[in-house]
Amino acid sequence: MVKVGIQLYSVRNSIKAEPFKTLEKIAQAGYKYVEAANHNALEDDGVGFGLSATEMKNALDDLGLSIIGCHINPLNFERLPAVLDYHQELGNKQIGCDIEFFPYEDLDYLKFRCELFNQVGEMCKDRGMRYYYHNHFQEFQRFGEKTVYDLIMEHTDPKLVFIEMDTYWIMRGGQDPLKLIEKYRDRLILLHQKDFPKNAPQPVNMFDGIINDNETISFPLFEETKDPHCFTEIGTGIMPIQDIIIAASKAPNLEYIILEQDHTDLDEIDSINVSMEAFKRYSGTDWE
């Protein structure tokens, strides 16, 4: 049975307005595991709440919440030791990168980034932590016959760089998430699950007329082409979620499936409640 958590990016506006009240509402909804997304690591070592590690741990403990990961952006070597020390004290055992590391301009640049990933993985390992890579659809562009994702896997140490697969973005990169889960099952420690609506304004595959698969995809271009109406509450769309859960449960190191809502037409708290109820219909998950 795979445990289920929530990515706090799903409630980012609520957290900005009422940070601790939002955590309370998450706990009241029945979530027990949270993955943070601190995109201000230059100013805040932790998870974006402005508390010391001890204070943050006490706040989470009081609500019955456990932190199971955190996206840090930017990951840079000047700030990273303090960030990792904070999370080690907090009790978080893994740190991931998010969206900072693209575009991958050419193969040499990609290899350079992979070496940085290995170094970050070593720094995490020294603290008894793990480093993981989170994908979007850009990693399924190709350099020659291989996707960027395959090249990242090839040029990073599997003992230092683990993966958090985002099955939504894998699908939107024109790939089969079930096949990719099987291919890299030994490195898979976290899995992001979103959902794609039945009547979306874009095709599933972003490379099917939305963006050229040879184009350099910068962050502004990513944001420009990401349609908010191509997301729906998890379990209400067209993704083969039960098949994904079955495939992911065979990965020997997978601990959590994390629900994430990039955009919603609902109130954010209502949205994560709808996703929870819809996701509970699937077998093979554990909410305790």
Relevant terms:
isomerase; TIM Barrel; Xyl_isomerase-like_TIM-brl; Sugar phosphate isomerase/epimerase; isomerase activity; 11 helices; globular; eight-stranded parallel barrel; IolE/XylAMocC-like; alpha/beta; 288 residues; two-stranded antiparallel ribbon
Topology:
Elements lengths: L1 E6 L4 H6 L1 H11 L3 E6 L14 H11 L2 E7 L7 H11 L3 E4 L9 H20 L3 E5 L7 E2 L2 E2 H7 L6 E6 H6 L4 H7 L4 E6 L25 H7 L15 H8 L7 E4 L8 H12 L5 E2 L2
Parallel strand pairs: 1-2, 1-10, 1-11, 2-3, 3-4, 4-5, 5-8, 8-9, 9-10
Antiparallel strand pairs: 6-7
Helix pairs in contact: 2-11, 3-4, 8-10
Describe the protein's architecture and organization.
One of its GO terms (molecular function) is isomerase activity. Residues 23-262 form the Xylose isomerase-like TIM barrel domain. Keywords: Isomerase. InterPro entries: IolE/XylAMocC-like, Xyl_isomerase-like_sf, Xyl_isomerase-like_TIM-brl. This is Sugar phosphate isomerase/epimerase. By secondary structure, the protein is of the alpha/beta class. The chain has one domain (2-286): Divalent-metal-dependent TIM barrel enzymes (TIM Barrel), CATH 3.20.20. 37% of the residues lie in helices and 17% in strands. It contains eleven helices and eleven strands. The protein has helices at residues 12-17, 19-29, 53-63, 80-90, 107-126, 148-154, 167-172, 177-183, 219-225, 241-248, 268-279; strands at residues 2-7, 33-38, 66-72, 94-97, 130-134, 142-143, 146-147, 161-166, 188-193, 256-259, 285-286. The strands form two sheets. It has an eight-stranded parallel beta barrel, surrounded by five helices. A two-stranded antiparallel ribbon has the order 6-7. Strand 4 (94-97), helix 5 (107-126) and strand 5 form a beta-alpha-beta unit. The chain is globular, with a radius of gyration of 18 Å. 41% of the residues are buried. The model has no long low-confidence stretch (mean pLDDT 93).
